[in-house]
Amino acid sequence: MARSAGLISIATMASRVLGVARETVLAAIFGAASGPEMDAFNVAFRVPNLLRDLFAEGAMTAAFVPTFTATLTTQGREGAWRLGNLVINALLVATGVLVVLGVIFAGPITHAMASGKEFAGVPGKLELTTLLTRLMLPFLTTVAVAVAMMGMLNSLHRFFIPALAPAMFNVATIACALLLVPAMPSIGLPPIAAIALGTVIGGLGQIAIQWSILHREGFRYRPVLDFRNPELRQILRLMGPGTLGLAAVQINVFVNTYLATTQPQGAVSWLNYAFRLMYLPIGLFGVSIATAALPDISRHAAANDKAAIRSTVSQGLRLMLMLNVPATIGLVVLANPIVGFLLQRGRFSAEDTASTAAALMCYAPGLVGYSAVKIASPTFYSLRESRTPVIVSVLTVSINLVLNITLVRILGYRGLALGTAVASIFNALVLLWFLRRRLDGLDGRRVGVALVKILAASIAMGIAAWWSSEALKSVLPDATVIWKHIDVNLSIRLMVAIAAGVGVLIASARVLRIAELDEATARVMRRVTGAGGTR
User: Which of 269, 286, 356, 497 has its CA 20 to 30 A from that of 363?
Assistant: First the structure.
């Protein structure tokens, strides 16, 4: 699992780095609070993204991978390929209908999501949001097919290319930002429309990059659709409760978006930039470990081997903690220099940096919770138990809504980030508690000891990083040396702080004998330097 997670992390690293580059380009061109464009784009993207989470990812992925893996084991590749075709065609039909309905009703949908006076009160902002929504809705269909292909490849232990696929979205967006933004006014469209077009092109790119490797594995597309197929019906049965649970989550997203539009201009973008930066370690460490673990968990579940499932989940949790706890503390103590280094240029001002950093500090504690859920929730689906994660999801949404409605009045837009983080931790703890009962334990003592040691080492790391950054401020003040829009002094301070923090983390891990650091490092490096290939 660690070897596979390491390879996934390499591909995800490329995608996430390109994602940060994408945000950097968009911040420089459109800023945050300096105009309505990014707020309008971020709200518009919530609509296809909301539908994608509801129908294309989430419950579909959790239901499809275990069923496809079981079909592959019992019926061979021929049966698995037929199931893959049935799922792809079902997704094409379902998402096609949703796209058409979304285009027709884009106006009322965006008005319901963004009717806050600080948002809708800006002339033309709501109309721009509606236009961008219509342009981006086909992204739902493209990413639905890409997710199904990703599930098939992961079941075959092909991890690298599927993990690299989301990079196509970022590449397309960056290319459109640099090449098409200046051309949009000449065809009667606002410059931000180029980014909406880049979103759809990026979805097509995710399909294209996976198609050839899936074809080499033996898959051939067939336009077949049979809702009587038992495996497809099993996926739909598993998706049913999961989709209801995700519907509750999307209600939360809907309310959060509305609450963000009641805040000053730029709040939607500040929250979006901060979440993207927080999602970097989730993608690198949380999702990669969960993706590598899920096929093994599915096979152990098919064999009803609780001990093997328990061991795999425990190992995944410990590896996740070793990587994400230090990342959490690093994001908190270095939020300002990280945001300033990555985003502060062009129309993205120092005020935008401070506001985004404040949101990032509030989001960061949820990093571990998000990553733990990525491991725990699919495990329940592998055990053919979809009710538990749905109930927990609905409960979490209720708590999140109460927290966000309360905290937004106290902390403004930052309260939305903090409420989301606290709710994600609650979600993870409750899921793990039920999973512990289901599996007769989760090696709790071993996980607990590892957490205490990792937390101690991470705190030492955070102190070293913060002290290093602050100590250099008087010697290397901000914005005194600028090279190609890069604050050189800030860059040096940030690199020194990260190096000092990592050095202290490694030293502390050695002193505390944290085995997970050695295990993760050794296996990932062995995989990187020795194994090669695409598996």
Answer: 497
At residue 266, what are phi and psi to the nearest 5 degrees? 105, -20
| Confidence (pLDDT) at 279 | 76
Indicate the range of 13-22, 295-304, 360-369, 376-385 predicted with least confidence: 295-304
Indicate the SS3 state at residue 344: coil
Whole-model pTM: value is 0.73
d(C-alpha 188, C-alpha 463), whole Å: 53
Q: Where are the domains of the chain?
A: 2-531
In this structure, of 14-28, 181-195, 409-423, 510-524, the range with the lowest mean pLDDT score is 510-524
Q: For the CA atoms of 73, 77, 80, 86, what is the dihedral angle to 10 degrees?
A: -170
**Selected residue with higher pLDDT from 11 and 233:** 233
According to DSSP, the β-strands at 486-487 and 482-483 are antiparallel
Burial class (CB in 10 A: 0-12, 13-18, 19+), 438: middle
- Rounded Cα distance between 248 and 427, Å, is 13
Tell me, what's the pLDDT at 518? 72
Q: Would you put residue 91 in left (φ > 0), alpha (ψ -120 to 50) or beta?
A: alpha
CA distances from 101 to 104, 108, 516 (A): 5, 11, 49
Q: What whole-number distance in Å separates Cα of residue 379 and Cα of residue 294?
A: 7
Neighbours of 390 (CB within 10 A): 22
- CA dihedral for 7, 10, 11, 12, sign (positive or negative): positive
**Residue 155's pLDDT band (cuts 50, 70, 90):** confident
Give the span between the Cα atoms of 55 and 9, in whole angstroms.
Answer: 26
Taking CA atoms, 466 is separated from 77, 341, 351, 500, in Å, by 53, 16, 21, 9
**What's the rounded Cα separation, in Å, for the pair 334 and 257?**
27
Residue type at 335 in one-letter notation: A
